[in-house]
Amino acid sequence: MHKYGIIAALLLIMGSIALTRPTHAESEPNDTPAQAIPIEIGYENSEVGATLTEDDEDYYRFEAVANRTYVIETYDIDGTGTRATGLWLYNANETEIADDEFGDNGTGNANARIVFSPTNTDTYFIRVRRASFQTWTGTYSLRVLPRYDEPGAEWNDNNDNEPNDTFAIANQIDIGLSNAQTRLIFDNSNLVSADTDQDFYHFEAVADRTYVIETYNIDGTDARATGLWLYNESETEIADDEFGNDGTGNVNARIVFSPTSDGTYFIRVRRASFQTWTGTYSLRVLPRFDEPGVDRAPSGEPNDVIPLANAIDLGATGAQTQEISANRDRVSNSADRDFYRFDAVAGREYVIETFAVEEDTSGNGTGLYLYNEDGTRLADDEFGNNGGGNVNARITFTFANPGTYFVMVTPRGFSSWSGPYSVQVCEESCRERVYLPLIRR
Question: What is the pTM of this model?
Answer without folding.
Answer: 0.91
